[in-house]
Amino acid sequence: MCSLCGILGCDDHWTNAIVRPGVYTRNHDTQSRRAEGLRRLKSANAVLSYRRLKLDVWQGRSYVMTSPTGGSSVFEALSHLWSEAEALSGRDLDPLDDDLIEWMEERTSL
Amino acid sequence: MTPVILLTGFLGSGKTTLLQRLLTDPSMKGAAVLINEFGEVGLDHALLDRIDDTVVVLKSGCICCTVRGEVADALSNLHSLRARGEIAFDRVVIETTGLADPYPVLQTLTAHPVLRSHFTNGGVLTTVDAVNAVLQVEHRSEAVRQIAAADRIVLTKTDLTEPEMEQALRRRLARINPGALILTTEASVDVILEGFGSTAFANTLAGEGGGDPLCGPTCDHAEHQHTHHHDHSHNRHHAHHYDDALGVTSFSLVIEQEIDWTMFGTWLTLLLHKHGERIFRVKGILAIEGEDSPIAIHGVQHLVHAPTHMANWPKGPRQSRIVFILEGLAPDQIRRSFTAFMGISEARTAAE
To answer: Which of B65, B81, B296, B326 could form a disulfide with B279 if both were Cys (CB 3.0 to 4.6 A apart)?
Structure first.
């Protein structure tokens, strides 16, 4: 359920699409779902570390994001990831921001 | 899944006239039609319904809340009536108001918890007034959004304009939306609707037809040849600014290296979260690490459709190509952001 609007079943995100003919997804079975989930956490955390935030899976179904000051938020749909990150850090997260670009260059060139 | 065809176009561009014509075609016999207002052109159709033009937008920043309430209600109602056996239809045509942005309706089809299981995007048909479109495109971002969202563009009133003006308009439209096929109202209904409303349409969007899905069938690829590496000092000229006042730009990002799918998802969702309002369309063929066949992606503003497998690579080198149609964002900054997030050494931008 969407924690913001209460609509059920919002998490058919394009990055994690439900298996159907012709659709590219890594959401095939428990194993591929879990492996992709771990990769997703890693890639999101590389970006979130710019604001010193950390994302983790909560009870296998939801996500929990924590801030260095002890703040946390739990959400269920990936579509809320970036708005939750901005709300928790209280600051913008702009992929076209020069400082974030440099931050990511340092991380991905390792 | 019932396909939903979206008929859009600026005020007075001939949407209802075209709709009236489309509905006379035998293939449209089973279509249910939703319109926003009863205009001057009378419509006589068995399944005509009316929707009011109010948009429900919750200010939470949550994408799934951007649901066009009345469209959702009208589609739900049609679905219920059909489920009870009171009516029958095999497709739906929605005619939007002239100032509507097509994105919320597409979003409704994708995000609505019930509708998304019963309805699918059957294609966006945009009417463009050949007499007034040049001015509209310069001054009204709604007109640009409608053109950018189109899968097919129908030029109307071409009999009232000079052939040179029509050619100039076609070139301009091709820059706003290089992927859309441009027709005139002289085309037969069969041609206008070819492939529209079929369940295979998503594959057509993704280029299963065998041609290059990122540029239109009439494209001679001449402009694509002028690609440049951004290591050069003249990189600010790479994108084609067709309208400085609006700052609408169309360019493609070309990447030789294979792409990490997961990080690509992270990057694109963040880019669309922050700048989706200004990214009218993103469409691409991706060479994904670990995948032999190409993957097609297709998005309108904040909305990205489920990625699809393509059977074959288009002609030319096997490389990823992502086309952006956007407003007020610097292509080179998008390229820099992309390479930084993806950890790849080189990507180049090319004019569309």
So the answer is: B326
